[in-house]
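Why do we bother with holo predictions? Because pocket geometry can differ from the apo form. Keep that in mind while you read this record for T5A.
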Amino acid sequence: MRGKFITIEGTEGVGKTTNIEFIQAWLDGKNLPFVCTREPGGTPLAEQIRELLLAPREEVVSSTAELLLIFAGRAQHLHQVIEPVLAEGAWILCDRFTDATYAYQGAGRNMRTDLIAELELLVQGSLRPDLTLILDIPVELGLKRASDRSEPDRFEQEQVEFFERVRQGYLAIAAADPDRCVVIDASLPLEAVQRQISVALEAFWFSSEESG
Ligand code: T5A
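The structure, written out:
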């Protein structure tokens, strides 16, 4: 049987990295084989593309160049990691995926979503995540958490308004696809965030078992 594809999303500093460890422990607890990966990145080529995308630079990066780099990395990641792992029956846990493109490039950079959808179809065919956890916090709290942790990358140098659009983009995705997406209030203490994640994972597990 094909594995399941779980993604975790949200604006800057929402706690994706922190909570991925918790999800890994949950998968281990269910004895599910899985691969944990991330976007941009996930293969040597795609990790090089990630470095290109995140490095702060003098020149203004065209939104189209950014979008194409993201989907180039994604094509390699799907071909080399995600598709084969799912086909073997293992699960994928991915830190960001195409919802990030709709939120950051679509809502954040005001790129046309029909163009993003065309690239999505080209690169992914019909493949979509089975469960997406969208960690949601007020933008300023996330940026504060991220800046307390490390120097800003190219995206983190954007203005607050950009991240407000990204946040609204994620919430719109969740509203449009409630069967797949679960919004988690990530402004709470970690224990309360992880309780919500646990509820979402158990509900997903139960429904996957039911559907065979
Ligand atoms: N991107 C990506 C696009 O534009 N389009 C795309 O299609 C894709 C795939 C890199 C960038 O790429 C862009 C978006 C991004 O800007 P990234 O590295 O995954 O992607 O993104 P970041 O958001 O930069 O990831 P971060 O590592 O900065 O944030 P996390 O992982 O969400 O946050 P985390 O876990 O490191 O937590 C931040 C801090 O908060 C604390 C943690 O201890 C840490 O110090 N924290 C909490 N503190 C209090 N209470 C809680 N509940 C806490 N949870 C975490």
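Residues 5-211 form a domain with the Rossmann fold fold (CATH 3.40.50.300).
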